Each structure stands twice: as structure tokens, then as C-alpha cells.
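Blackboard transcription, Thursday session:
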Amino acid sequence: AQSVTQLGSHVSVSEGALVLLRCNYSSSVPPYLFWYVQYPNQGLQLLLKYTSAATLVKGINGFEAEFKKSETSFHLTKPSAHMSDAAEYFCAVSAVTSHGNAGNNRKLIWGLGTSLAVNP
Amino acid sequence: KAGVTQTPRYLIKTRGQQVTLSCSPISGHRSVSWYQQTPGQGLQFLFEYFSETQRNKGNFPGRFSGRQFSNSRSEMNVSTLELGDSALYLCASSSGQGANTGELFFGEGSRLTVL
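(Written on the board underneath:)
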């Protein structure tokens, strides 16, 4: 069964420090992978996505993630944290559940989220 | 281009009542998905509608229902409210089927409190 695990429900970094948010997935077929961000009192916003092209994916606000098939990981990084990065981050995998004439049917599976705090 | 609009943003109900939440997707988007978000459970998928048809459904009781209209606007209804239904309900739209593209555009949510 497909699943997503985000290691660490809370991560705290200093402003200017490296941000590393971990995501591991389990999928029997090549997945599509996503990172979303949720700022306080807002909905989720797509940060970046991996859909089997380049393994290093660049997203908005200076974030990037690397797909590592051998480690089944898709960790999110940012070289230098800003105060404005404080938010909840969700990793998601879109995994194939069935094959049809019109194409594959997929299901989105979400991690439980990681709350990022940035300290001045 | 206007984003996803959810109404109402906040509401308070009592146990046993019912509630209807509304979602207007981004113009041109035909898929609407609904999620329940709670601190302990994260994002729980409720259902997805595409061109007025329910395409996927999560593991929620029958008290949770939804529909999509011809203009792609969607409503979800929760009947016989329970305390555990208190949550942020998020709607997301996408141009194709949401799970197939993974590119969802979320509204700000409707925060339901059940007393």
C-alpha cells in the first residue's frame, strides 16, 4: 500500500540556517511527488512537484527537493531560512491505483505535515 | 484570475444539526476535492467531483455528502453533526482530476466548530 511519512512533526531553525524537511514514501510504481505549504489561516499552496522528469526539482520561494528512488525519499530543502517560511509543510504522493482505457487512475496520499518554526 | 472561494469561512453549530459548505473553483477548473483537516489527523480526503460526477471517495460515514453543479461549484453537507466533526474543511480545485495531476488549488477553508 502506498504511504507517506514525514519525519518530525515540528522543526525549528534559526533565520539564515538550512531548512531540511524529510519525506519518505512507499509506492510500488513510480510516483508523482509534491510539497505543499500552508501559512496560518490559509489553504495549501503547491511549492513544487516531481513527475518523473529531473530528479532535482526547484519550487517557489527558494525551495527545492530531490527525488531519490533508492532511498524512497523526497526531502525539501532551502539554503537559508526566512521568518516568512514559518508554516506547515505537507508532502503528498500521487500513486497509481488502477489502469484504465482513459489512462491511469491515481490517488493522492498526504503526510501528516511538518510545522516549521524560524527563530530570529 | 480569482482563486478558490469557500463560504462561510467560520461557523458554529450544535450537535445534531446539519451544515452545508460551498466551494467555487477557479474558473475553468472541472474538478473539486474536499478535505477535512484536524490537528491530530492531518488532511483527510472526503471526496472528489469531476464534471458533476463523484470520482473518488474517502473513508467517511454517510453523514458526509457532496455534489457538484454544472458550473463546477460544489457543496458538501454534513448531517447530524458530532463534536468530532469540528475541523477546517478545505476545498481544492484542479483542471484535470485532482489526484491524477496532483496540482490542487486550495481555498482558505471553512472552519466548523460543533458545540
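Lecturer's comment: DSSP finds no helices and eleven strands in chain A.
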